[in-house]
Amino acid sequence: MPISDVMTHPVVTADGSTSLREVGTLMRDRNVGSVVICEHGHPVGVVTDRDLALAVVADGVDPQEQVGAHATRPLVTGEVEMELEEAVALMVQHRIRRLPVMRESELAGIVTIDDLAVRAGDLSLAQRITAEVAKAALPEFFFHQRGG
Description:
Elements: E1 13-15, H1 20-30, E2 34-39, E3 42-48, H2 49-58, E4 78-79, H3 84-94, E5 98-103, E6 106-112, H4 113-119, H5 123-137
Parallel strand pairs: 1-2, 4-5
Antiparallel strand pairs: 2-3, 5-6
Helix pairs in contact: 3-5, 4-5
């Protein structure tokens, strides 16, 4: 199944000069957990609700600061023709939960781990995807045998 069948579009985007507060408001109003950050009309990074919480609340960053400085870069992207398994492998490899999807040089959609798990309609695939990304994102000592 191609990821274009499960991706969300249109994608919520913001210019890199947008304030952290405005991006937080955008996330709330559009009911999304991430915003793709664009510069000169091209996607360059992504900011998540967790990024905002850590920057503004935990690190005390001024909510009026520009979001571009807090975006995760470089942006890892997929292509609309990619198969589900390819997208999963890419997300696991890069330890990401969101994958912007490109059609040539244009942003065509975004796929999240939840999209891949739920929309694929395959419970075993959903469990494997979630486990693989979680395992890739956490230190190895959480998963090896302890003791002895």
